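Bench log. Compound arrived from synthesis this morning; before running ITC I wanted a structural hypothesis for how iron/sulfur cluster sits in the protein. Inputs:
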Amino acid sequence: MGARQNGTYPGAAALRWTAVPTRYDLDRDALVARLAGEPRYRVDQVWDGLHRQLAEPAELTTLPKALRARLDAELPPALTPVATSTDRRGDTVKWLFALDDGARLETVLMHYRDRSTVCVSSQAGCAMGCGFCATGQAGFQRHLSTGEIVEQVVRAARRARDDGRRLGNVVFMGMGEPLANYDRVWSAVERLHGDLGLSARHLTVSTVGLVPGIRRLAGEALPVNLAVSLHAANDDLRTALVPINARYPLSVLMAACADYLRAKGRRLSFEWALIDGTNDRASDARELAELSRTLPLPAHVNLIPLNPTPGYPTRGTPRDGVVRFRRWLDDLGVNATIRRNRGTDIDAACGQLAARVELGGRTRVTAPAR
Ligand code: SF4
């Protein structure tokens, strides 16, 4: 569990290691060490049970009772469900989880016609300070550990299986800026690929534009998808919406994106939360098209109307404005998709999860963020 800190980002030093490793914090070698004294075939059964069968230790009835009890005691789960909500059609499941120190995070599972996708959080809160984002408005609590990220996926995969589906896609677009928690996020990517058997091509890491992280990503062996939460294609507006743009302006960001595309040949998407009268004008579409043309491969733009947040006085672009913006992009030769709003439209961008306000034991969705 050696951790390198990403010392240049706000909140980077705030990772709080839990005193006891949780169930999915251990890689295979660490599990072997942790279960020293158990025969190797037993350790293999435990590994297979946790990662292939997605089982709780109590469900692993091929193990002796004493070992199941030991697993429960020594490898506790990281996440405690606080609230779960399912939409009317049963195709979106949202969890609010508590961590052992009281921090909270959200995870969303979405069933589409042809696939099931989970959107995971990478931090509790976020330090990036995007004003329109409910997560950003609430501030940063801490980084999530690798196990806390992987367990979100395991729980979603279990639920997908119960729904008769198979979880195939993971997007790091929940709470937090994934590249500000690079080491734990990348370790989770490797574990999802190697231990849970998910294809790297079905894993998407989003960022608000942390250029050093994009450059590190370009040097990794696994070819994951990159999603950049752009929201504006000129520096003045983007800095107003996404403060990190002051440190990594668009010219620097686009150069990193171009290098990523050259290195990986993977899909790049731009996420664009449409804000009424702010970034949904014809001039915004033109600027976006011009920016896209600087890349060696075309980017795909995902459009999502911003839902209102209590701390941000503007509203999302109405439906007809969204359709018009897409048509402008179309005319300019830019591929764009209007993302369906599922209350929290998770395809949209990192941090798009709703802020939940607990109301007498219930939760209600107040807003998606970025
Ligand atoms: S939009 Fe993303 S990066 Fe910005 S504050 Fe929200 S979660 Fe953080």
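What the model suggests: The chain has eleven helices and 14 strands. Residues 1-13, 343-370 have pLDDT under 50 and may be disordered.
ITC booked for Thursday regardless.
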